[in-house]
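Hi R.,

Here's the chain you asked about this morning:
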Amino acid sequence: MYTVDLHNHTKFSYDGSNTPEEIIENAIRHGVDVIGITDHQFSIGENLPIYYEYIQHCKIKYADQIKVLCGLEIGTRPTPPESLPRATEIFDYVLFECLDDTRAIDFYEFLEWRKLFKCKAGLAHTDIFKLGERYGLDIIKILRDNDIFWELNTSGNYIYYYDFLTNEKKQQIIKESGIPVSVGSDTHYIAEYRKKQIRRANELLQKLNICLLYTSPSPRDYAAS
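And here is the predicted structure, written out as tokens:
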């Protein structure tokens, strides 16, 4: 089984407790194949170039042990800075958080804003089915048409993750849609790393032949090159 974990925080985040190296080495110890660092954009602020270069250094340092990716978690409560799309062009991906929150940016506004980003973009901490119901939209088609992937957050703080594990109807909808799905532990402190949950989510997606971001081929070219 191939294991990915694309949501992790380091000391670059206000709520992160470990260095990028500690997060990466923890992932190696737990048999993870792809690890993504996704610190908070509002914590990093104007230090994005420093952050990016640091993670690039880690990519090289651990290249023979694990694939390291540079991501960024972007807050949507309120609307993020206009400079972000250009600043993140060279990133591997970005995660937009909590779009199903009533305090988040308007979804229609978000879709226009997402078009400005050149890197891969996904939704974190978001129940996309609930989001679609709120706006009365075919959310699956919209995500597919706008090249947006969806994250299964295994931190234990989001009900939609548990629902998806057992809801065969929703599993089939995602499978048939071809939308890439990522798995993220949302780690802030390695002592609390949820290895079993990460493995379970990865196993489920691969068993169902759902396109797992950065592992399996996709007609929308989301897979790792």
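One quick note: The longest strand covers residues 67-74.

Cheers,
M.
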